[in-house]
Specification:
Largest sheet of chain B: 7 strands, mixed
Shape of chain B: globular
Largest sheet of chain A: 8 strands, antiparallel
Order of helices and strands of chain B: EEHHEHEEHEHEHEHHEH
CATH class of the largest domain in chain B: Alpha Beta
Number of helices of chain B: 9
Helix content of chain B: 25-40%
Radius of gyration of chain A: 21 Å
Strand order of the largest sheet of chain B: 3-4-5-6-7-8-9
Distance between the termini of chain A: 53 Å
CATH architecture of the largest domain in chain B: Alpha-Beta Complex
Oligomer: heterodimer
Structural class of chain B: alpha/beta
CATH superfamily of the largest domain in chain A: ATP-grasp fold, B domain
Chain lengths: 439, 286
C-alpha cells in the first residue's frame, strides 16, 4: 500500500479522498491555490503545498507544479479526484515518467476513451450498442451520412465534453453551418476540430453504470445511476437504482457496461454512460475514466468504498469479490448543492441522522470565490426503498442551512417535491423545459 | 447575536403523513395544557378554574363559566342577553362568522353581562367571551356593556369587568369603534355617581378594548401572562424598526411599566375582588 498520496484537487472531493486515506493510514499531501490556503482540504491533510495563484490554469491544472509537489514530499501516488486533471492523459503519463502512480486508468486508456469517435468505434466492435451515427466527417461526408442517420441529429466534437462543441440539427438545410460552427468551437475548446454525427434521441434518460476493474481482468458492476435531472447539461440530482428499467433491462445494461470496460482494457473505477430510450433500448455515450461526483450513491447501496478501492487497485491489489458477491440494497439520492454567487459562510448547519450525509468542504467563515466550480456540497440520503430515501432528502434539505451564500437548496426542494420526481417519470430534457417555462 | 433564532433557519419538510396504523382518537375527557403539553382530565382542569395543575398556565376560561364560578352560590343573573349583533353593513361572510361563533361558543354575543354577589358584595359584572370571534367588540357588545354600567349607576352598584378581546369587530366598521366612546361615557357617569369599577384583564386584551374601558378601571388587575396591548408586536416592530423583547405586552411587562395595579392568580381572584369591592363600596352590603 502507498504510504503517502498527494491529492491533486480541492473542495469536497479532496476532503473525501483525504478522509479515505486517513482511514487507511495513508499520509496525505494537499495542494492548494493562494485563496484556498485556509480551505478544509489543506487543513485536513498531513502536508500542504501551495501550487499557484487563484486561476486554476496556474494552480490545480498546473501539472509541473503538482508533480514537483509530489516529488518534493515523496508522495508515491497522486489521486486526481474528478474534474481538473482527472481525465488528462498527459498528466497520467507525466506521473508515470516521474515514477509516481496515477490513481486511475493508464494514460493510453484515458486517451482512447477520451476521444469520443475512437471510443464509439471500439464499443461497436465489442458489441456494445451505440447511437446510430457516423465517424469523423467533413462537411461533404456529413451530408451523405445524415441521410442514413435521419433528422434530428447531433453534431458532436470528437474530443468534446461538458456540452461544448455540440449542435442539434433539426433540418437538412441547417447541417452545413452547424458542422462548421461545431468544428470551430471544438478547435477553440479542445484544440481538435474533428466532429461526428449522431442520431438525436428524445425523451431519453441518462443512465450510467459504475464499474470497478482490477489488473487481473476482474470487472464488477456496482449498479446504475439515473442522472437525467440536468439543467444546461449539468447534473442536478442523481439517484440509484434507475426507476425506469426492469430487471431484464438492468441485466443487459450491466452486461453491456462490463463488455465496454473489458474492451477498453480498463482498470480502476470508471463509469459507462448510456442513453436510455423510452422503448428500453440503450446506447453507449461515453466512458468516464475517473471517479464521478455522484459516486457516493453507489457506495450507499453497495457498501463498497470506491475511493479506497481506487487506491487499492492502483496499489496492485486484486478485488476480493466478484459480481455474484455484489448485493445492492435499497435506494440512494444525491442533491448537488451549488453556490449561486459568492459570499462568506456566516452560519452552517449540516443535517445528520441515519443514512443522511453532506459531503462538503464548507466550514464556518469559508469564502466562496468565483474561481472554481460552483458545487459546494452533495447532500446524500439512502433508505430501504426509493420512498424512504426521498423522504429523508426532503427533510434533510429543509434542515440544511448555509447562511451568507446564495444556494440552490430551495430549488432542489422544489424538484424533490414535484410530482414528476415523485413518480420517477422524467427525462433529460424535463428540468431544462421546466426552467424555460418559468422564465 | 442575542436575537439570533436558530429555529427560524429551518424549513418544514413537505413529507406527507406516513400511512398505516390506527389514528389516535382525541380523548374527549382529556385536555392538553398548551404550555407544558401535559394532559389532564377535563374535570380536574375545570375544578381548578382551568389553571394548569402542573405549570400554572391560565387556560382560556369561557365567560359564563367564569361568572358562574366567581359569583357566590348561583347568584349570577344575566342581563341584556336579548341584544345581539346584526350585519348592518352586509359585510361579506359576517353572517356565517356570527353563526359559527354562536354554534362554537354557545353564546349569542361576545360578552355576558349581569349581576351577582362576589365576596359578599352585590355587583354588576361583564365577562367577554374569547370563544366568540375572539371577544371582538361590535355594537351589541358595546351596548350590553354600556347598559351594564348604566344599570350599575342607577342601582349604585360597583362593576367588575373581565376583558378578553382581539379589539374592535372589523365587520361592523366605524360603528364598532364608536363603542369605545359610548362605553367610556357610561363609565364616566358611573364614576361620577361615586361607584367603583374594577377591570380584570384576561388573555388577550388588545386593540380598542385596551384603548377604552379595559384601562378605565378605578383599579386594574390582570391574570398572569395575559397579553395586554394595543397594536400587535409585529406591527410595532415594523413601524418603529426596532426589536422588542420577548415579554413585551405580557401582563408582567405592563405591570412593570405602571399600567396595571396588580397581577392576580385566577384562583385568588374571588378573594381579591371581594376584598376590593368591600373596601370601595359603602352601600348595598349584604
Amino acid at each position: 500500500m502507498f504510504k503517502k498520496i498527494l491529492v491533486a484537487n480541492r473542495g469536497e472531493i479532496a476532503v473525501r479522498i483525504i478522509r479515505a486515506c486517513r482511514e487507511m493510514g495513508i499520509a496525505t499531501v494537499a495542494v492548494y491555490s493562494e485563496p484556498d490556503k485556509n480551505a478544509l482540504h489543506a487543513a485536513l491533510a498531513d502536508e500542504r503545498i501551495c501550487i499557484g495563484p487563484a486561476s486554476a490554469v496556474q494552480s490545480y491544472l498546473n501539472m509541473q507544479n503538482i508533480i514537483s509537489a509530489a516529488l518534493a514530499t515523496h508522495a508515491e501516488a497522486i489521486h486526481p479526484g474528478y474534474g481538473f486533471l482527472s481525465e488528462n492523459s498527459l498528466f497520467a503519463a507525466l506521473c508515470v515518467q516521474n515514477d509516481i502512480v496515477f490513481i486511475g486508468p493508464e494514460s493510453d486508456v484515458i486517451d482512447r476513451m477520451g476521444n469520443k469517435d475512437q471510443a464509439r468505434r471500439l464499443m461497436m466492435s465489442a458489441g456494445v450498442p451505440v447511437i446510430p451515427g457516423s465517424g469523423v466527417v467533413t462537411v461533404a461526408q456529413a451530408k451523405k451520412a445524415a441521410v442514413k442517420i435521419g433528422y434530428p441529429l447531433l453534431v458532436k466534437a470528437a474530443a468534446g465534453g461538458g456540452g461544448k462543441g455540440i449542435r442539434i440539427v433539426e433540418r437538412e438545410e441547417d447541417l452545413e453551418k452547424s458542422v462548421v460552427a461545431a468544428c470551430e468551437e471544438a478547435k477553440k475548446a479542445f484544440g481538435c476540430g474533428d466532429v461526428f454525427l449522431e442520431k438525436y434521441l428524445t425523451s431519453v434518460r441518462h443512465v450510467e453504470v459504475q464499474i470497478l476493474a482490477d489488473h487481473t481482468g476482474n470487472v464488477v458492476c456496482l449498479g446504475e445511476r439515473d442522472c437525467s435531472l440536468q439543467i444546461g447539461r449539468q447534473k442536478v440530482i442523481e439517484e440509484t437504482p434507475c426507476s425506469a428499467i426492469d430487471e431484464h433491462i438492468r441485466k443487459r445494461l450491466w452486461e453491456a457496461a462490463v463488455k465496454a470496460v473489458k474492451a477498453a482494457k480498463y482498470t480502476n473505477a470508471g463509469t459507462v454512460e448510456f442513453l436510455l430510450a423510452p422503448d428500453g433500448n440503450f446506447y453507449f455515450i461515453e466512458m468516464n475514466t475517473r471517479l464521478q461526483v455522484e459516486h457516493r450513491i453507489s457506495e450507499e447501496v453497495s457498501g463498497i468504498d470506491l475511493v479506497k478501492w481506487q487506491i487499492r487497485i492502483a496499489s496492485q491489489m486484486e478485488l476480493p469479490f466478484r459480481q455474484e458477491d455484489i448485493q445492492l440494497r435499497g435506494a440512494s439520492i444525491e442533491c448537488r448543492i451549488n453556490a449561486l454567487g459568492g459570499g462568506k459562510v456566516s452560519f452552517l448547519h449540516v443535517p445528520g441522522g441515519n443514512r443522511v450525509s453532506f459531503d462538503t468542504a464548507l466550514i464556518q467563515d469559508a469564502e466562496i470565490t468565483p474561481f472554481y466550480d460552483s458545487m459546494i456540497g452533495k447532500l446524500i440520503t439512502a433508505g430501504n426503498d426509493r420512498e424512504e430515501a426521498v423522504r429523508k432528502m426532503e427533510a434533510a434539505l429543509c434542515e440544511l442551512v448555509i447562511s451568507g451564500v446564495p444556494t440552490n437548496i430551495e430549488q432542489q426542494s422544489e424538484i424533490i417535491r414535484s410530482p414528476e420526481f415523485h413518480s420517477g417519470q422524467y427525462d433529460t430534457a424535463w428540468l431544462q423545459k421546466r426552467k424555460e417555462a418559468r422564465t | 447575536m442575542s436575537e439570533f433564532k436558530i429555529a427560524d433557519l429551518f424549513r418544514k419538510p413537505a413529507n406527507p403523513l406516513e400511512p398505516g396504523g390506527t389514528p389516535r382518537k382525541p380523548a374527549d375527557d382529556r385536555e392538553q395544557c398548551p404550555r407544558c403539553k401535559q394532559y389532564f382530565p377535563r374535570k380536574k382542569l375545570e375544578k381548578n378554574l382551568r389553571v394548569c395543575p402542573s405549570c400554572g398556565h391560565h387556560l382560556t376560561l369561557p365567560a359564563r363559566r367564569r361568572l358562574e364560578a366567581f359569583c357566590a352560590g348561583g347568584s349570577f343573573s344575566e342581563l341584556f342577553s336579548d341584544i345581539t349583533a346584526r350585519d348592518f353593513l352586509h359585510f361579506p361572510g359576517y353572517e356565517d362568522k356570527l353563526k359559527k361563533a354562536r354554534d362554537g361558543s354557545g353564546e349569542n354575543e361576545g360578552v355576558v353581562c349581569g349581576t351577582g354577589i362576589v365576596g359578599g358584595v352585590k355587583c354588576a359584572l361583564f365577562a367577554m367571551e374569547p370563544g366568540f370571534m375572539m371577544g371582538s367588540m361590535g355594537a351589541a357588545v358595546g351596548e350590553r356593556i354600556t347598559r351594564t354600567f348604566e344599570y350599575a349607576t342607577a342601582n349604585r352598584l360597583p362593576v367588575v369587568g373581565f376583558t378578553a378581546s382581539g379589539g374592535a369587530r372589523m365587520q361592523e366598521g366605524i360603528i364598532s369603534l364608536m363603542q369605545m366612546a359610548k362605553i367610556s361615557g357610561a363609565i364616566q357617569r358611573h364614576g361620577e355617581a361615586g361607584c367603583f369599577y374594577l377591570a380584570v384583564l384576561t388573555h388577550p386584551t388588545t386593540g380598542g378594548v385596551t384603548a377604552s374601558f379595559a384601562m378605565l378601571g378605578d383599579i386594574i388587575i390582570a391574570e398572569p401572562k395575559a397579553l395586554v396591548g394595543f397594536a400587535g408586536k409585529r406591527v410595532i416592530e415594523q413601524t418603529t424598526k426596532s426589536k422588542l423583547t420577548a415579554d413585551f405586552q405580557s401582563a408582567e411587562f405592563v405591570l412593570k411599566h405602571g399600567f396595571l395595579d396588580a397581577i392576580v392568580d385566577r384562583k385568588q381572584l374571588v378573594e381579591v375582588i371581594g376584598r376590593l369591592l368591600k373596601q370601595h363600596t359603602t352601600e348595598k352590603k349584604l
